[in-house]
Amino acid sequence: MNSFIIEDVNALLKLKKGEPSRLNRIKDLCETNEIISLSDRKYIERLVSQYLSKFEQKKPESQDKSKFTLIDESLISTPKTFETNTSKHQTDLLKEVQITEDADSKKILSKTLDLRLNKKILLGTGAIILAIILIATVGIAYDGTQIPYDSDTKSDTSSEFSLETDESSYETAEIISISGQISSSSSGTVRLSIENENSKLIWAENLNIKNDGNFSTLLIAGGTGWENRGKYTLNEENEGLTNQISFDFIAKK
After folding, report:
1. What is the DSSP code string of 28-72?
2. Which residues make beta-bridge pairs with 158?
3. Other CB atoms within 10 Å distance of the CB of residue 234
4. Which residues have C-beta within 8 Å of that of residue 174, sequence separation ≥ 6?
């Protein structure tokens, strides 16, 4: 599955589409078989759908033109002794070749689109399976036990580190993907926590920061404290610095 992502990233970099730094980071994660966040996967899929599909559709036309020119030159090289008797035959042959080439180009285009569609289905299925495995292994579901919260400091420090979710709103039982990056001067662990619409702590987790400063995790929206709809706050803490973002939650009963 990662090999498909690497192929798409290389194609996007060659076409100079998307953010080179983000594309190279995603490529490095694929080559080292590390987890890729859902937001990065959706980012790749959107660029592939927007740019690579158009590029693939143009390709058969240039191939058709090359084949047609080759056959045309072959017919022009017919010996002069048969020029009078075969001129009508050549005209008919050219029409037949053109019809055949048009049919072949449609088949090539159809196969290309089918391959792209199958690749997207494979990427989506792999992401779902990976999320299920992580949830079963790590035990992400929150059981109501709160981790002590030892800081009330809340400030915007986006220049020091970033924090994001894959969506702006969630419903009960949906998977929330959280990812971020901390400056190279930071190390150790980062603490993530979520407060509901009443500012009550309902989830928290300490994550190890990777060597490149990235971190990510998954959790299921639901459990104790997730009973009401409203705007929920995601907090981030590292070495005395804090950051926070919010998302909408729709509780389903």
Report:
1. HHHHTT----HHHHHHHHHHIIIIIHHHHHHHHHHHHHHHHHHHH
2. none
3. 20
4. 220, 221
pLDDT higher than threshold 80 for residue 164:
yes
**Cα–Cα distance, 207 to 127 (Å, whole number):** 21
The one-letter code for the residue type at 113 is L
The average pLDDT across 170-198 equals: 88
φ and ψ at residue 168, rounded to 5 degrees: -95, -10
d(CA 77, CA 59) in angstroms, rounded, equals: 28
Q: Which amino acid is at 105?
A: S
Average pLDDT value for the chain: 74
Q: Model's pTM, two decimal places? A: 0.40
Q: Which amino acid is at 16?
A: K
Identify the CA nearest to 158 among candidates 194, 183, 177.
183
Separation CA 149–CA 118 (nearest Å): 46
The token duo for 181 is: 């990056």
pLDDT digits (tens, 9 = 90+) for 59-88: 554 444 444 344 444 444 444 444 445 556
Distance between CA 173 and CA 152 in Å, rounded? 28
Least confident of 16-25, 124-133, 162-171: 124-133
